[in-house]
Design brief:
alpha+beta, Arc Repressor Mutant, subunit A
Length: 127
Amino acid sequence: MPKRLNSSRVILAGAFEVDLGSRELWRDGHQISLEERPFEVLVLLLERNGKVVTRQEIREKLWPPDSSADPERSLDLAVRRLKLALRDTGEKPGYIEILPDGGYRFVAKISKLPPRQPPGSPSFMIA
């Protein structure tokens, strides 16, 4: 049986559930493997809720100036891995739009899920 999310900080992003507490990505009750940097890029895009996030903003937040990694190459790789995890390939993006001016936008519908209540809590009791 697939694990069920239990964090109160879950965002529904298109067909995916993003658990910000446990830093997990889920679809149809199955966890999708996603490394740290692609997950962090996803969180930045979700925080903007459909607004553009520039490459420079992402680099500044996720790759400090003293980092030994090449931020341009690392960002390209993180976005590529994120798009693969979201099954977002082809001509028309369903999740991440890559803009010609060097920005990104999350284009799927985003909504916060209500906190999950444990069994036996008042919301589960029948009067």
